[in-house]
Amino acid sequence: MKINSIDPRVNRSKIDPEKKFEEAKELDQWQTFEVFQQIKRGMHHQHVGCVHAPSPEIAFLFAKEQYARRGQCVNIWVVKSSDVFATEYEDADIFDSAPEKFHRDPSTYKVMDRIQAFKERQKS
Amino acid sequence: MNISEKGFFAIKEMLYKIADDQLILGHRNSEWTGLGPVLEEDIAFSSMAQDKIGHSLAMYEILSQMGESDPDTIAFMRNDDQFHCCHLVEYPIGEYEFSLMRHFFFDMAEAIRFEMLANSTFEPLAMVARKIKGEIKYHTMHAQIWINQLGAATEESNLRMQKALNETFPLALGIFEPGTHEEILAEEGIFEGEKALQDKWLQLVTPILEKAGLQVPSISSITPSYGGRFGSHTPHLQPMLEEMTEVFRIDPSAEW
Amino acid sequence: MYGNAYIDPSLAPNKLTQDEDPIKLAEFEARIAAGDKIEPKDWMPTEYRKQLIRMIEQHAHSEIIGSLPEGTWITRAPGFRRKLALIAKVQDEVGHAQLLYSAAETLGKPREEMINDLISGKSKYSNVFNYPAITWADTAVIAWLIDAGAIVNQLANSKGSYGPYVRALDRICAEESFHLKYGHDNVVYLATGTPKQRQMVQEALTRWWPPIMHFFGPSDKISVHTETLMKWKVKMASNDDMRQTFLNMYVPKIWDLGLVLPDPNLKKNTETGLWEYTEPDWEEFKRVINGDGPCNAERLAVRRQAEEKGRWVRQALLSKDSRYVTPLV
Ligand SMILES: [Fe+2]
Ligand SMILES: [Fe+2]
Ligand SMILES: [Fe+2]
Asked: What burial letters (b/e) apply to B151-167, b meaning 16+ CB within 10 Å?
């Protein structure tokens, strides 16, 4: 039997629709790379997604077209997913007190009152 | 610009063959869209096919400005004997190794051709050549990386790539079939010539293929597949054109 | 392109969460209620993971299979403008599949396993793609109206709770606006063109209307299960709501072109503000989804062949020391 398709590409490829699909013995799946894209010089690279690729070079070829085929881009990084050390969301509480560290907060340094008071004292 | 009347005639001939190559190969390669060997490669290959069709459009636009028909009419209303593409681009997509090797051979030549044309005395063409430089650079990076990695990866991949190389090599030499007006083009500083291009190409592709564990046949043992530049084509082209223009020709005067 | 997730209404409510740690479950639900996103390695109920994998996977399959009906006309698009746009549009759909498979992978199912399940028929995809694109005008109708339907669904889902899916959908929705414009432009050119062109587009619209009405699926049976999934922001809107949104946005635009929709009962009830229509043939819907549509066999066979043809490429570069791990996305 033959598929009689409206798509001439399909007819050219002579598919046998009866044929059973044989799964590969082992998943023929490449590793993944995380993709970072820089929109413009001066900006940080930003994580935009991942690609499946057998090597960093091919990962770059793929990343360029999957993530930068429209819009601006000046630079791409690809990093093996397995090389990324990530914190656990479970441990997100390690970041909790950061916003409250007042000694790092410039707005907590208010010396004008003190200077004013000092000046008043000098006058008298 | 001091280009003679003969020069303009020669330019038209050259533009037709460049554009026809790009259109036909872009069309062929676009057939992989949605059917590629892996999703990401599907996307990358499709982008390059679109670039190619875009490049042909830019060439047909120059031709239009030189008094030829509009790009759609040029591309969609001619029969095969009016096309000037080389045989390499006419073949169906085949297996992926065939498409990949064809892409490698063609785009390496294309990159050199446009590098040469970037300094052409024919300014409209030089301008396009400079503009599409980056796109072609990606195409050749893509081609080289794949050839390099697949050439000797496994016994099967080596066999497939070598077979594809043997099939496409004589066809690829057809890219450089000399035209009738090569001398005028060279004299007027428009284009150095197919012979020069072929020499540069061979010097460039040979070490890449060898490094990838593939054998490049000696060029003297090969009969190049000529004829395409003069309208004599493989049996694949006319049916492809009929397919490509099927809708357009329902009513060529309609706006689609 | 995708209609909506099929949810099994028969599942007993207590089955959903009975084995879950009540404290973790409460935290999880509170996070979602607060509008926060769930990320891949977060604790999540088994049923949440299961339904998301299923839904995102089906969505991804719909993109890759969805590239086939329009792909039918890639080699025949009339003129440079259409030729370039159609290739780019179909390419985008492949890109959507890639993004969605990646999002689903973060939940623990490798991409090749999902593709295997698609080809073996174990996993479903949107029913509309089992219909043929008979003429060039069909591709115009698909690009406009099927994509429009997909956008309604995707916009709703992009407000969901799972981070990687939401991020993928944000990117996808941005690209869909090109598809919609391209599709509309294409339909407008045909509808305002020669009598022959107009006839082509009218016939295509008539053919595609029933599948379009099927697109969002039958009315949801409200069950504890669907309510839970809505609370978890897995399912974001009811099928009927999405259908109404779609009809409200697009029927006027279709009528505006003087095109006729093959449903004499289709009209907007001015009192309720809702669209009324002849109930779609849900028997046909079921029959097609279960494999008996005009193109099911072809779609899967094409995908199988693409997978088999690409196998040597994937296997040649498979390296033993670069192990696949779940992507971060
Ligand atoms: Fe190229
Ligand atoms: Fe899509
Ligand atoms: Fe789309």
From this structure: bbbeeebbebbbebbeb
Closest CA to B237 of B110, B94, B107, B92: B92
CB contact under 8 A, A58 and B47: no
- Residues in contact with C57: Cβ distance below 8 Å, sequence separation at least 6, in sequence order: C100, C101, C104, C109, C114, C117, C123
Give, for all 329 residues of chain C, the pLDDT tens digit. Answer: 466 655 555 556 567 788 899 999 999 999 999 999 999 999 999 999 999 999 999 999 999 999 999 999 999 999 999 999 999 999 999 999 999 999 999 999 999 999 999 999 999 999 999 999 999 999 999 999 999 999 999 999 999 999 999 999 999 999 999 999 999 999 999 999 999 999 999 999 999 999 999 999 999 887 788 889 999 999 999 999 999 999 999 999 999 999 999 999 999 999 999 999 999 999 999 999 999 999 999 999 999 999 999 999 999 999 877 788 999 98
> For C327, which of A21, A27, A50 is closest by C-beta distance?
A50
Q: What is the pLDDT at residue C13?
A: 58
Q: Hey, which chains touch B, using 3+ CB pairs under 8 Å?
A: A, C
Class of the domain covering B5-250: mainly alpha
Residue list, CB under 5 A from ion ligand 2: C 1, 63, 93, 96
Bridge partner residues of A80 (DSSP): A33
Cβ distance C314 to A28 less than 8 Å, yes or no, reads yes
What's the CA gap between C305 and A59, in Å, rounded? 24
The domains of chain C are located at 22-317
What are the phi and psi torsion angles at A78 (to 5°)?
-125, 135
The ipTM (two decimal places) reads 0.98
Q: Which two three-digit tokens encode residue C61?
A: 């399959």
Other beta carbons less than 10 A from residue A95's beta carbon: 9
User: C42 — contact with chain A (CB < 8 Å)?
Assistant: yes
Tell me the pLDDT tens digit for each residue of B181-190: 999 999 999 9
**Which residues contact residue C192 at a Cβ distance below 8 angstroms, ignoring those fewer than 6 apart?**
C198, C257
A66 touches chain B (CB under 8 A): yes
Q: How far is ligand 3, taken at its centre, from the CA of residue C90, in Å? A: 8
Cα dist. A67→A35, A39, A76, A77, B44 in Å? 8, 11, 9, 12, 11
Name the β-bridge partners of C275. Answer: C268
In this prediction, residue A1 carries a pLDDT of 59
Confidence of residue A106 (pLDDT cuts 50, 70, 90): confident
Q: Is the Cβ pair A6, C132 closer than 8 Å?
A: yes
Q: Looking at the partner chain, which of B31, B35, B141 has a beta carbon nearest the beta carbon of A61? A: B141
For residue A18, the model assigns a pLDDT of 81
Q: What pLDDT does A25 receive? A: 77
* Distance from C-alpha of B206 to C-alpha of B217, rounded to nearest angstrom: 10
Q: Helices marked H in chain B — which ranges?
A: 5-30, 39-65, 71-76, 96-117, 123-131, 133-150, 155-173, 182-187, 194-211, 237-244
Mean pLDDT of A90-113: 88
Please classify residue C37 by burial: count the beta carbons closer than 10 Å to its beta carbon, then call 0-12 exposed, 13-18 middle and 19+ buried.
middle
Ligand nearest to the CA of C147: 3
Residues 6 or more apart whose Cβ sits within 8 Å of residue B118: B126, B129, B130, B133
Average pLDDT, chain B: 97
**Fold topology of C22-317:** Ferritin (1.20.1260)
Helices B194-211 + B133-150 axis angle, to 10: 40
| Residue carrying the six token digits 């090969």 | B222
CATH of A8-16+29-85, one of 3.40.50.80, 3.10.20.520, 1.20.210.10, 3.60.20.10: 3.10.20.520
